[in-house]
Amino acid sequence: MIGEYPKFPEFSRSEISERLVPEIRHWALTNGLIMYPPHPDFSQGAVAPTTLYPTPFPRRSFDQAISVQTLYNALYANIAQDRGEWLSKEIASLAEFDPEFTGRLWNLYVQAKEKGISQKLALGVFRSDYLLDVASLEVKQVEFNTVSVSFGGLSTKVGQLHKFLNDTGRYSGDSGQPFYQDEIPVSDSAFLLAKSLAEAVKHFQTNNSITIVAFIVQKGERNVFDQRILEYNLFEHFGIKSIRLTIHEINSKTHVDPDTSRIYYTPSGEEISVVYFRAGYSPSDFVNEQDWQNRLTLETSYAIKAPNLLTQLAGAKKIQQLLTDESILQSFISDASTRRKLGSSFVKIHPMDNSEAGLNARKLALDNPEMFVLKPQREGGGNNIYKRDIPGFLESIPEQDWSGYILMELIKPEPTTDNIVVKADQFAQEPILSELGIFGYVLFDESTIYLNEYAGWLLRSKSSSSDEGGVAAGFGCVDSVVLY
Ligand code: ADP
Ligand code: MG
Description:
single chain, 484 residues, 6-stranded mixed β-sheet, 5-stranded antiparallel β-sheet, 16 helices, 23% strand, binds magnesium ion
């Protein structure tokens, strides 16, 4: 039991369905806490899956996660700066085990380097994800995301929703008083992530007084509104326009000046200063050779990429595993107390290669699979292999391919039993596990970090009976916290 956490309101099923669920729906539809439904009719949004109440989270652990974010930002910027080509070497060898994706991205980077990369600045927009370890009350890192981090927009909305329901007394029955006296913070991620793009625009060198930001998106994306929230914040607070393009559309809707490498949006002729990727992290985002070519065009253009290919590749799970090796971490961070702070958020991650450590891990994976999750070099959910599925999976693939995976100790969070998940026309009280994400951004070139900031947070919850947690994939919901 995680100490004394605030109790949940107690309502009957009929009070929930007749009073609270309609409150959530109206607030969500009015304020854009929405997604497209699984089979989108693009004229209608659906209320995003959410919890009825904020989930209690220890303030100390919440603050711990926030306090390491700028350290992580700097660490990953340093890695992507690729001094000494450590990242290049690691990705080049990883590429062999994942030729269809990591390999192709790596190839694009090599081609871009040969052609010449004119823009030295890169923007990292990151999210570090954690589960709360019940034994130590420390947050432990699940993964570090360096491309297409999502839910920064909806996180602000769900915090506002829960705070509204509390402050207006909706959680208190008829008294009209707030139910929770403890803080229900609202994540500033919708604004701060927009600010990260605005900062990059500000650092972009151009003679044009107006430039635009290109959001690179997936066709048929269901989580459009989360992205739109950033676009509207970008315009409202910073006066910066944005356009949305799929990777497929780059060759028909943009053109590059061959002398300057500057890239323009063809319909308006406006210069694109920042290319912000909310696509390009999965093989299915590239349907033909032209699409790969288009990604290369963006990489060699003068626009600032958020992220560039190296920064994206630095988010490989293999890199996360390597950083848990003290001597590798030390080569990036000389300060021992910084290493200790980061290290307190690590769990053990083993290589699965032919090294001695790798051979030991292979044995662990086969003998004690229930302690582990096996991860390939993919993003976006649905790719991991959990617990007892691991041995059978390993046996089903050639042994030389095992090196492309990492074996990660399972973090043990405690389920929250009294919250209620509201999804489409249903709601259910079920034990949930919550994953805290902390956003951050960093603007850097090969030698210098110009900006390094925290950018808000996100809580996603999922039924504790499912291993995976993707909201867009239908496994989870957006949540917020009540700090205690
Ligand atoms: P993806 O790139 O697909 O998001 P993740 O590494 O984030 O992959 O894993 C997906 C989900 O699996 C996480 O959201 C979490 O619920 C669960 N998970 C991953 N690693 C661990 C771990 N070490 N301990 C417990 N759960 C984990
Ligand atoms: Mg994840």
